Amino acid sequence: MAGMQFTEKTLDYAKNPRNQGEMEQPTAVGEVSNPDCGDSTTMYLKVEDGIIKDVTFETFGCAAAVASSSILTEMILGKTVEEAYKLTEEAVADELGGLPDKKMHCSLIGIDAMRKAIDNYRKGIVRDDD
Ligand code: FES
Asked: How far is the C-alpha of 86 from the C-alpha of 29, rounded, in Å?
């Protein structure tokens, strides 16, 4: 779903992000930055038996990236890593009630960070540089 401006829900998640902050002793962490705009997101996952038991994020970037990353944490909590990995930026945008076309790419940064964290989990490492 696409529109011209931010929905109320997007503005709410941008202003009051849920699950924001660093996690102590995460199972896996994924960090990505978008070279075009310089925005970045880090996802912290606590995984037990393949299930996401806790998730937090930190985003330094635009309102759409903050809102998308935040709502993604709620979407993947309690899911298996396989289910979470398959989520798309369209699913995240839909959950926010749509994003302006020009901001669709901003919803990808959280997804990419989450997938990187899951990749690290599968490799048995916490972070890329471990
Ligand atoms: Fe960079 Fe939105 S403008 S993520």
From this structure: 18
| Residue 110 near ligand 1, beta carbon < 6 Å | no
Instruction: Identify whether the C-beta of residue 93 lies closer than 8 Å to the C-beta of residue 69.
Output: no
**Rounded to whole angstroms, how far apart are CA atoms 55 and 25?**
11
Q: What is the CATH number of domain 8-123?
A: 3.90.1010.10
Specify the pTM. 0.95
| Residues annotated as catalytic (active site), given as ranges | 37, 106
Helix (H, G, I), strand (E, B) or coil at 97: coil
Residue 73 C-alpha to ligand 1 middle, in angstroms?
Answer: 18
Q: Give, rounded to a whole angstrom, the gap between the first and last alpha carbons of the chain.
A: 39
Categorize the per-residue pLDDT at 2 as very low, low, confident or very high, splitting at 50, 70 and 90.
low
Please give the Cα distance from 66 to 4 (Å, whole number): 18
| C-alpha 78 to ligand 1 mean position (Å) | 27
